[in-house]
Amino acid sequence: MRIDGDFDYVVVGAGTAGCIVANRLSEDPRNRVLLLEAGGRDNWIWFHIPVGYLFAIGNPRADWMFKTDPEPGLNGRALAYPRGKVIGGSSAINAMISMRGQAADYDGWRQLGLEGWGWDDVLPEFRNLEDHFMGASDLHGTGGGWRIEPPRVSWPVLDAVATAAQEMGISRSLDFNTGDNEGAGYFHVNQKRGRRWSSARGFLKPALSRPNLRLETNVCVDRLRIENRRVTGLRLVRDGQSVDVAAKREVILCAGALGSVQILHRSGVGPADWLRPLGIEIALDGPGIGHNLQDHLQQRAIYKVSGIRTLNETYHSLGRRALMGLDYIFRRRGPLTMAPSQLGIFTRSSPTHERANIQFHIQPLSLDKFGEPLHRFPAITVAACNLRPTSRGTVRIESSSLNAPPRIAPNYLATSEDRLVAADAIRVTRTLMRQPALARYAPEEFLPGPYVADDDVSLAHAAGDIGTTIFHPVGTIRMGPEADPLSPLDARLRMRGIDGLRVIDASIMPTITSGNTNTPTAMIARKGASMVLDDAHRSRIA
Asked: Distance between CA 274 and CA 281 in Å, rounded?
């Protein structure tokens, strides 16, 4: 079978990146664009009410339900590894936090030899994406598809934590997205009037009225069709049947740091020593494809408090839950508008770091893990993550079968540097919770627990016990200079050794950004799509 149509570009994955790429390419009516999504439409209420992440993560309707290998650095624990299974991708189930990272992150990419990726180069892309509540300025834009608003709920307990951060020398921040995110403040979120604002809502749906853009959902890409070192199309599976589709100009993978690797590996593009034992014919021996996995590991410290309200009490009170629902229905405010984390703190785990290297996600609630009830005692979660881990992991397929999940080995806390930062982050957490602003609420350490000694080995082991992913996998198909054999992509996101193939998603990051990764992925999508258009224009006039 074939999908009928004469397509210039086939975009794989209607997630954060794919929606933006498809929108941008289809702005030119000469471009015929096909967008493929393995998940379905976002026609479920919990994709739109912000607190719906509690129901979407861990639900096979919305989540691919991946798991990691047992991790030595996490004392043998395996983690759930959520990824969005719907148009909008992970932007339909994520924390909604709008965070660019630090200017030095992108300047670091440029220093690797990636011209055009420094802070001054990417800032215009961020601005062009945005419809920012703070208005147009040198730092922010308006009129774009990426709606950004302040949170619509506040908690006195979080205000007290922000004051405690000031007492230990961390300044207040009204905007984490200036290029230097050091400070304490409330996160800005991808919402519009109390509803989640995913990439599908902001970029895909407004473009679907264009006759030159076609969306197909519930189709899984099995492999690329490669002829004479050029990608000519794709082999898909829909309802158990194989379907072919052709691409005249390019196939663009936007399936994410896991999905894009799976497709390449099934296509014979990847490390030959991984793929040959699976019986896969090698189209290109790409030793770096599936390596360089980076993620932010957070240590979820929990503190019991007293004399102040947290969401735990509201959750276990039917009356308060009813009021919470009414507040959302009539005002689009209150706890149902909450992102998973509201208050952020960016600081240094020790004075040896030149810039903020840890990020706190602070929540007025506590629970054992997503999908389980909140605790019955009042408590807050004070989770610190290492913004620039030095550990590197892998993603690989273990079977040529389309239905086989990937093998994910993040390799958390594998380096002495990461173990030291984890230990120091717990020390900073304890210092924060001892500040005078919090004394009246008698914070009591529940996790990792006051019995954990204040030495590097004990604290690093405790970090392994309470550490969990913050859902930021990147870097598995990184861009880099031609001299680097482990960088499959050039600075224009083209696959080296295969024509007609580009990757535009979080997998292209050479190093992880210093904060939540969804907004950087959106920037990559816009910049990458501009590169596709520029290259096409040059070829037309050549």
From this structure: 11
Which H or E run contains 233?
strand 230-238
Provide the residue ranges of all domains of the chain, joining segments of one domain with +.
Answer: 9-126+150-541
Backbone φ, ψ for residue 269 (5° rounding): -115, 105
Query: Among candidates 239, 224, 295, which has minimal Cα distance to 12?
Result: 224
The predicted-structure confidence for 109-122, as pLDDT tens digits, reads as follows: 999 999 999 999 99
Cα separation, 237 vs 220, in Å, equals 5
pLDDT digits (tens, 9 = 90+) for 176-226: 999 999 999 999 999 999 999 999 999 999 999 999 999 999 999 999 999
**C-beta separation of 196 from 52 below 8 A:** yes
Tokens representing 59 are 């639900």
Answer yes or no: are the C-beta atoms of 161 and 362 closer than 8 Å.
Answer: yes
- Mapping DSSP onto H, E and C, the string for 422-489 reads HHHHHHHHHHHHCCHHHHCCCCEEEECCCCCCCCHHHHHHHHHHHEEECCCCECCCCECCCCCCCCCE
CA 110 to chain centre: 22
Q: Give the 3-state secondary structure of 94-116.
A: CCCECCCCCHHHHHHHHHCCCCC
Residues forming the annotated binding site for FAD? 86, 221
Q: Are strands 33-37 and 213-217 parallel, antiparallel or unpaired?
A: parallel
The CATH number that domain 9-126+150-541 falls under is 3.50.50.60
d(CA 146, CA 152): 18
> Residue 5 pLDDT > 80, yes or no?
no
Tell me whether residue 461 is one of the annotated catalytic residues.
Answer: no
Q: How far is CA 427 from CA 395, 454, 457, 463, in A?
A: 32, 8, 13, 11
Per annotation, catalytic residue among 132, 140, 188, 472? 472
Binding-site members are 86, 221
